[in-house]
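Incident log, structure service

09:12 report received: a user says their structure output differs between two submissions of the same chain.
09:20 pulled the input from the user's history:
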Amino acid sequence: MAALAEEQTEVAVKLEPEGPPTLLPPQAGDGAGEGSGGTTNNGPNGGGGNVAASSSAGGDGGTPKPTVAVSASAPAGAAPVPAAAPEAGAPHDRQTLLAVLQFLRQSNLREAEEALRREARLLEEAVAGSGAPGEVDSAGAEAASALLSRVTASAPGPAAPDPPGTGASGATAVSGSASGPAASGKVGSVAVEDQPDVSAVLSAYNQQGDPSMYEEYYSGLKHFIECSLDCHRAELSQLFYPLFVHMYLELVYNQHENEAKSFFEKFHGDQECYYQDDLRVLSSLTKKEHMKGNETMLDFRTSKFVLRISRDSYQLLKRHLQEKQNNQIWNIVQEHLYIDIFDGMPRSKQQIDAMVGSLAGEAKREANKSKVFFGLLKEPEIEVPLDDEDEEGENEEGKPKKKKPKKDSVGSKSKKQDPNAPPQNRIPLPELKDSDKLDKIMNMKETTKRVRLGPDCLPSICFYTFLNAYQGLTAVDVTDDSSLIAGGFADSTVRVWSVTPKKLRSVKQASDLSLIDKESDDVLERIMDEKTASELKILYGHSGPVYGASFSPDRNYLLSSSEDGTVRLWSLQTFTCLVGYKGHNYPVWDTQFSPYGYYFVSGGHDRVARLWATDHYQPLRIFAGHLADVNCTRFHPNSNYVATGSADRTVRLWDVLNGNCVRIFTGHKGPIHSLTFSPNGRFLATGATDGRVLLWDIGHGLMVGELKGHTDTVCSLRFSRDGEILASGSMDNTVRLWDAIKAFEDLETDDFTTATGHINLPENSQELLLGTYMTKSTPVVHLHFTRRNLVLAAGAYSPQ
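09:34 re-ran on a clean worker, output below:
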């Protein structure tokens, strides 16, 4: 038995006032104390019916260890447990206690044995080994009976639950209640009655640690981390913020308001600068009542904060907390943090800083393991008629043919089946109409005249400035063929302009339509009412600012999303509202059509994104997981995935087929406001209020680049049609062009990097920056590449 002392050992004995002693199955615990003995009572009023004392030889942070149970046949040399007898009295209880003490002694768990003996006030001679259990002096017998009666007589009323793996940590559990046997496997904890969610969430803070010691605990850990080796210090420093928040909230919840205020003032300055906004919210929570309705607080409580730490650093931390018997901090680590341990070298400060900063820490490595079909769907075969190709005189008939393979080689819409593409029928996509085929032919013709961009051939930029918008411009979109531009405004209107000389016309009235010859070749022209022709159409219907706008690929429809909680679908034939989609309960910040039409996605203040189809009133999928507003949404070019950027400082990629989250990207230090996929579907670029543009490899789930240069929120991102250049527009009144080809070449995506997150981002933002274009005083709200690679930018002039 001595050999088992190295493993975690926990002994559970259930005592009942009537009947024989019952042995409960032992529970695998997470002890923090190394052989530490003690008694804890975690009931709210000290009367929860628990006396817990468990002994452990080093738990492993949430990893259950083998437990040793006291079976009905006691180990050799130990006092035997008596058989069931009809009259259960003090001698039986005493003999059970002696058996436990004898077992603890044999297992070399002296501290726990002494703690239990002190509690029962038994004399040393009583368990000297050879004496029969019955030969205990009367003083010892009375003491044992007193202990047992004290344990068993406790009221069985509900107590606050001990957090799993923490309540009985560091002590042998002797649990007894006056009412029937406790649930098996639950040692040292009492079932809690049904409570509202908020109370259940907060109840884990009902720890009765000494409030005056919190500052000392935190200072001790801080000193230990700051004095540790450089290689471990960077990793362990990640603990400061989550521990600070949870210790502060614990003090507030237990109504130690002055201690909480002092704790906050002393340590809030030590936290990383990118947590300042969260700390501002936290500083306003000074009373227990404030915590009940605070969303940020509940998020922090319900989602475990994820830290990625090497095994060496973790062992160092565990050893320190066990030596100091710092149970308060260990309990928080066990209960509220998820430590993702990896084997290998610890990460450097730069590597950690690149990945942290979100509301819930880093992403777990498992979150980015699932397979993603990032390839493009095979394009339908459409014959391009060559008869009108000689419009420009110098073009001979064969020229477009020669140019077409060039387009395929750069990874845009491919004719060959991409090995990383999803099956063609993975999700149902709409059939191509004749008008779609005509549009695709036009697109192919435009492609032959497309300018090949690069560092030596930068695009021209055409800027559309909205004048007299009085900061009321809240959304912009441009059609794929660059013929229409739409603006959403704070006065709840949507305005559509024609960018070409062709005016906007509505369809004629029904009475006039009946007179038209439906068989004529120009029927589509005849149905339009020339009297209604104008450059601008205004769409009324929303009852709040319009925050999102998106044209359908076929230019027949326009989506708009608003503060009024609805998404509206407008017809661009009649310029009227066809449907109002009601599903969000709060403002809808963004909406976007699928590249194939029919489907669209919306995201809002209710923290979820919803997938809709134009012919369904209800959403088809609800993508829930973000901890704050969903600010921006984007479809992947193959329409099988949706990316969402959130104020929780994470980007998530969702599978449209089943609604699962398949990627979580962390690294931004502020809310995310722009997203764009590369034309080949392999990469994602994201922009946020921190002014950085981050580049992600979707297949490997890794950050592969960081573009620094903007000094304010990045509102818009767009890749050129062939993916050679990334354009970014910002509130700092600039458009910047970046070399995307160079940014994505020679990527380090080996298995080790993927498994551990040891990313080494090159500091080459200045090399990748190809140009910066200032506006006078116009924040850049939207960017668009035309089919010939001209950049269109849009924003509202804001006088200083």
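09:41 both user submissions now match this output. Likely a transient worker issue. Closing.
09:42 reviewer note: Residues 1-89, 123-196, 389-414 have pLDDT under 50 and may be disordered. The first helix runs from residue 90 to 106.
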